[in-house]
Amino acid sequence: MTGRLQGLELRRVAMPLVSPFRTSFGTEHERDVLLVRAVTAEAEGWGECVALSGPLYSPEYVDGAQAFIKRYLIPLLRRFDGHVYALEPLFEPLKGHPMAKAAVQTAVLDAQLRAAALPLGAFLGATKQRVPAGVSVGIMDSVPALLDAVAGYLAAGYLRIKLKIEPGWDVEPVRAVRERFGDDVLLQVDANTAYTLTDAEHLARLDPFGLLLIEQPLPEDDIRGHARLATMIRTPICLDESIVSARAAADAIALNACRIVNIKPGRVGGYLEARRIHDVCAANGVAVWAGGMLETGLGRAANVALAALPGFTLPGDTSASDRYYAQDITEPFVLQDGHVAVPAGPGIGVEPLRDVLDSVTTETEWHNFTGVS
Ligand code: OSB
Ligand code: MG
Q1: Residue 347 domain-assigned?
Q2: Is the CB of residue 346 below 6 angstroms from any atom belonging to ligand 1?
Q3: Would residue 264 show up in a list of annotated catalytic residues for this protein?
Q4: pTM, whole model, 2 decimals?
Q5: Residues with beta carbon < 5 A to ion ligand 2?
Q6: Residue 77 Cα to ligand 1 middle (Å)
Q7: Has residue 320 been placed in a domain?
Q8: Is the CB of 40 under 6 A from ligand 1?
Q9: Are 53 and 29 in contact (CB under 8 A)?
Q10: Which atom of ligand 1 is nearest to the CA of 317?
């Protein structure tokens, strides 16, 4: 699995969301996505950059990721003809920018897997053909609006509900969802770093509701705070933003800062590192689940393959395409019995629908690597 790169395409697409998605850090109305297409003589592959438009979830943002790829990764890629594993040491001297690196790595990995006729799931060690789907529900203007949204998702078959929370929108929405839909619904919350340790008593008020987990209540670098909070509340703590590498996962686990980990390949520099986090967690008996970043079908396909690994024992944010987009850029991912099918074809196993892709494209640049030694 090697192959000289003939070139790289950077493509920006504008994808209107079916409804605004509000979190403790902001509201997304439209997804401005950077796609990377890697071309070799044998095949081409796709990677989706999960950076949001602004640096509100992590330091990366989509314009910055594109600039970083152009200025720092493309010069390295011009001479690259190795296995995708060789990209990690090649990129390693450049600090940070995991989402930009992940997008490029995934495009190259997809091209190499397609050339080798190997599905991404098989490459990573997937053991399932379909994965249970949860849904992430944004902060709403009112509790009745939230209950309507949750009712719709449960009717569609979603197997787990995640409520975005922030100070002022936490205990009441959770109580209302429990009262209306009962104790059997798998329910969890995600704070996206909106609290501090002084909120511990308040967060303990979530204890009676039998939540699966509370995701990232405290700041990204507050590992000790999460460990302390874990002794003050009964709801299991899950980390998202804090888990930036397999080493960070090992440290957080060793310090008892989390009992569960959300794995997002973009946050950790790609699917190779995501796989290592899965392995570290499995070795420590820590459950993992697949996070999401409002991906199009291209990014979703790869996330679903990862979610099919044996350590992914909780439903992920691997929702169907129509939870996000009226028209996806691939054949839509659909919910069947609350599950999403793992693509069976080589690489990520899906193709962009060319007409749709072109109709949402706002910018394309092609970087040609041939003729350069
Ligand atoms: O914290 O998990 C998060 C979306 C964008 C940025 C961060 C997060 C999210 C989600 C949505 O919760 C997950 C999805 O359905 O893609
Ligand atoms: Mg999260």
Answers
A1: no
A2: no
A3: yes
A4: 0.97
A5: 190, 215, 240
A6: 30
A7: yes
A8: no
A9: no
A10: 15
In-domain check, residue 260: yes
Whole-number Å distance between alpha carbons of 335 and 34: 26
Instruction: Extract the tokens encoding 249.
Output: 């996962």
Q: Is 132 found in the same domain as 41?
A: no
Helix orientation angle between 143-156 and 171-181, rounded to the nearest 10 degrees:
50
Strand residues in the chain grouped as ranges (E): 5-23, 26-40, 44-49, 130-132, 134-137, 160-164, 187-190, 214-215, 237-239, 260-263, 287-290, 339-341, 361-368
Query: Helix 223-230 vs helix 246-254: angle between axes, to the nearest 10 degrees?
Result: 40
pLDDT per residue over 63-72, tens digit each? 999 999 999 9
pLDDT tens digits for 5-56?
Answer: 999 999 999 999 999 999 999 999 999 999 999 999 999 999 999 999 999 9
User: Looking at ligand 1, which atom is closest to the CA of residue 295?
Assistant: 16
Q: Are residues 175 and 292 in the same domain?
A: yes
- How many residues are present in the chain? 373
For residue 292 and ligand 1, the question of a CB distance below 6 A is answered with: yes
**Dihedral, 105, 45, 329, 345 alpha carbons, nearest 10:** -110
DSSP state of 77: H
Same domain, 19 and 47: yes
